[in-house]
Amino acid sequence: MRLIIAEDEVLLRAGLTRLLADEGYDVVATASTGPDLVTATLSLRPDLVITDIRMPPTHTRDGIAAALRLRRELPSLAVLVLSQHVDSTGATELLADGAQGVGYLLKQRIMDVDPFLEAVREVLAGGTVVDASVVDGMIGRRRTDNPVDRLSPRRRETLALMAQGMSNARIAEELVVTEHAVARNISAIFDTLGLPPSTNEHRRVLAVLRYLDRPGP
């Protein structure tokens, strides 16, 4: 698989490049600014872009802006965004395009190598990976007449794990219940949130995240 890494911190960029190269990935380019990331990606057409959310030239949201542009122009491109702090807005923008193969992790999580590499594999496979802290922040927001408030504590917990991209089997293991119980809870969650049936698990997760982060009335 071919990757581009965008990170303005030289040591972190070099470390990620070495780590992923050692795992057998082909890091075809690196970038230190948002515009450089866009140029390199449109030219080289990698399978995955890993980018910091804050990059030069403005050091604000150049990385996520580049990622969103690239997703519009290259819908099959997988994107994994890294952030120093929880930014629910950035996560929602990334997820709200409705496509698969996206991830949002806090930088501190990549210090734990195995879960980070698992996230890379999941996103490349078309999955959705969202940092648990971001999910907690999104679910924890209280808005007027938000149907999430009508969910039981167990179903809210199930929703948080589901939004992280966990399969029913992993949720069952985490909550120490049967997969049948998980499936029943998920069905009830979607009924409560007014979400239509879908055969695409990841689109359902994205729909839940978009709904949770919508502005209140």
Automatic annotation (TrEMBL):
Modification type 4-aspartylphosphate: residues: D52
PROSITE patterns associated with the record: RESPONSE_REGULATORY (PS50110)
Signal peptide, first to last residue: none
Domain (Response regulatory): residue spans on this chain: 2-122
CDD domains in the cross-refs: REC_NarL-like
Keyword Manganese: no
Highest taxon, organism lineage: Bacteria
Pfam families (UniProt xref): GerE, Response_reg
Keyword field: DNA-binding, Phosphoprotein, Transcription, Transcription regulation
InterPro entries referenced in this protein's UniProt entry, alphabetically: CheY-like_superfamily (IPR011006), NreC/VraR/RcsB-like_REC (IPR058245), Sig_transdc_resp-reg_C-effctor (IPR016032), Sig_transdc_resp-reg_receiver (IPR001789), Tscrpt_reg_LuxR_C (IPR000792), WalR-like (IPR039420)
SUPFAM superfamilies: C-terminal effector domain of the bipartite response regulators, CheY-like
Name of protein: Response regulator transcription factor
Organism listed in the record: Microlunatus spumicola
Highest classification ranks of the organism: Bacteria, Bacillati, Actinomycetota, Actinomycetes, Propionibacteriales
